[in-house]
Amino acid sequence: MAVSQSTAGLFLSALVFTILWVNIARRNRRHQHSHGLANLPSPEAKSWWKGNFDQALNPKAWDFHMRLLKEYAPVVRLDAFLGDKQLIVFDPKAMHHILVKDQAMYDKPKSTFSGGVLIFGKGLVTIQGEAHRKQRRALNPVFSIAHMRNMLPIFYDVVHKVSITLIHELRFPTHDLVSGIRNQLEDGLSSKFKDENAPQEIEILSWMSRTALELVGQAGLGYSFDDLADDSGAHPYTGILKQLVTTLGRMWFIRSYIVNFAVKIGSPSFRRWVLDRLPWKGGHRLRDMSDYMWELSKQIHEGKKRALAGGDEAVARQVGKGKDIMSILMRLNMEEGSQSQLDEDEVLGQMSSLIFAAMDTTSSALARVLHILSTRLDVQGKLRQEILEARKKCGDQDIPYDELVSLPYLDAVCRETLRLYPPVPYVFRVATQDMILPLSNPVTGIDGTSISEIHIPNKTAVTVSIINSNRNPVIWGPDALEWKPERWLSPLPDELIEAHIPGVYSHLMTFNAGSRSCIGFKFSQLEMNDSSIYLPNSTVYRPEK
Ligand code: HEM
Ligand SMILES: *[C@@H]1O[C@H](CO)[C@@H](O)[C@H](O)[C@H]1NC(C)=O
Ligand SMILES: *[C@@H]1O[C@H](CO)[C@@H](O)[C@H](O)[C@H]1NC(C)=O
Ligand SMILES: *[C@@H]1O[C@H](CO)[C@@H](O)[C@H](O)[C@H]1NC(C)=O
């Protein structure tokens, strides 16, 4: 049995690979007739068969993209598998066309959909076309400001009941983020450090991952994953999501070129049978993660259905008290005559999609803010001052929604962090027919001619570089690469205003543009400006005797 299984595995791998090879080679022959892309400058390719693919798409590609920003025009050709020609852009007009004006002709890559549905089910992130428009209509009201307002207390609950107690009240027994971090600091002090004035290090990213999961857990799903009590308590979901991101990150090639074909072969149970037998560890890990998420979503969903059937009291007893995204969605969905009703598997599909879209992004933004503040004590002090004053004005209570969202320095710190360190640095699209892509400013082709419009053949992959748009010195000014919250407190450069960046938020591409922009962007800002309140006074921590 063992022998036949691994032989079958090898045979199947070889077969799948051959089919793909033939398919891609056929497609590339068509591409060679297009001159529009070939005339665009491109960084030299490192590999004869993968082109720039590995340079551009890997977790350490920062230098490569910085080079694109510094040495190339905001539209560059990339050579991918077997000469497959792709584009990477951050020209404002081009971005507007791809993401807003002509967005119907630039789909997300098929692999996002086929692979995404396999992993998450039919959620907002993983579907397209009319089904996506319907889900978006159903979900938009769920993310309204009114609902966000109601969620603020949930955020406060997670992060802390009483602000700034970190420094002053060392023995605070509640289970939440602040006491969790404080316990860790105290443990560190008693064991590692004799000198209690010595600085201490905290691995803030793992704390923020747990926080982000708990925030979207409670406010998104009405479910508590983690009481944030101590180091050992992290919910398995946190690890799974981080692993999912890195595992998927390592599978660029398979996701771009293989999944599309693979999902067309046979029935789901046959594909599962094949996957179980393929000698492919990453694939098996993805399978197990996806099973885990689906089972948990089903459990949570069942619990909510029971509560909704049990009436208002049962709902009020739940985590989130019925004010979380899923409860709102399920209630709207039950309303008679509601126009955009979702099927049960679509409702279920939202859960892991939401967690996935919310967690890694939020945790990376929060960790980044805290890290910066731990190195910029001047900024930290000023921010602390602003927050303390706002708290004093409301009697040292949690700062209410309207005051919270109008603190100028906090706002500038959040914006600047989201500008320079966008948690999602690129989005990917594929042209679904031959297109003409206009540019804000002409670029010089390899043959020296000036190019103001690019001919994009059907099926060309186009990457929008969010990060390079946010960092472009041509529009943000020569200090574009510096982290400077003050830039938001004085008038923004004319070049920036005139560039008409299509992003939904604050001239930034961070939350994307158009009908597939981030639906959770207000949610995440609120997470950020709420959580920032509870910053320890620098990571240099001196407990009182
Ligand atoms: C700092 C935090 C966040 C950032 C930077 C961010 C960024 C983005 C970006 C760039 C996209 C577009 C992806 C693409 O088109 O390929 C997106 C989509 C999405 N985001 Fe966020 N996001 C954040 C937080 C959240 C949160 C907290 C939620 C939910 C509560 C959320 C829910 C979604 C959903 C559902 C989509 C898919 C929308 C659609 O396709 O219609 N995001 N996000
Ligand atoms: C941190 O707190 C201490 C004591 O409360 C204060 O003296 C110090 O100025 C604060 N530092 C910053 C950067 O806010
Ligand atoms: C806080 O979040 C709100 C969205 O609810 C946003 O409008 C505001 O700009 C944010 N403020 C800060 C201080 O980041
Ligand atoms: C573009 O390519 C897709 C996928 O092969 C094909 O279905 C579609 O008909 C093409 N569109 C046009 C306008 O040629």
UniProtKB/TrEMBL annotation:
This protein's pathway: Secondary metabolite biosynthesis; terpenoid biosynthesis
Residues that, per the record, bind heme: 518
Any Pfam family matching the protein: p450
GO CC annotation: membrane
Gene3D superfamilies: Cytochrome P450
Keyword Metal-binding found: yes
Main location: membrane
Molecular-function annotations in GO: heme binding; iron ion binding; monooxygenase activity; oxidoreductase activity, acting on paired donors, with incorporation or reduction of molecular oxygen
Compartments, as annotated in UniProt: Membrane
PROSITE patterns listed in its UniProt record: CYTOCHROME_P450 (PS00086)
Entry keywords, A to Z: Heme, Iron, Membrane, Metal-binding, Monooxygenase, Oxidoreductase, Transmembrane, Transmembrane helix
TM region positions: 6-24
Cofactors named for this entry: heme
InterPro entries with a match to the protein in the record: Cyt_P450 (IPR001128), Cyt_P450_CS (IPR017972), Cyt_P450_E_grp-IV (IPR002403), Cyt_P450_sf (IPR036396), Cytochrome_P450_monoxygenase (IPR050121)
Protein's UniProt keywords contain rRNA-binding: no
Family in the record: Belongs to the cytochrome P450 family.
Protein name: Cytochrome P450
Organism: Tetrapyrgos nigripes
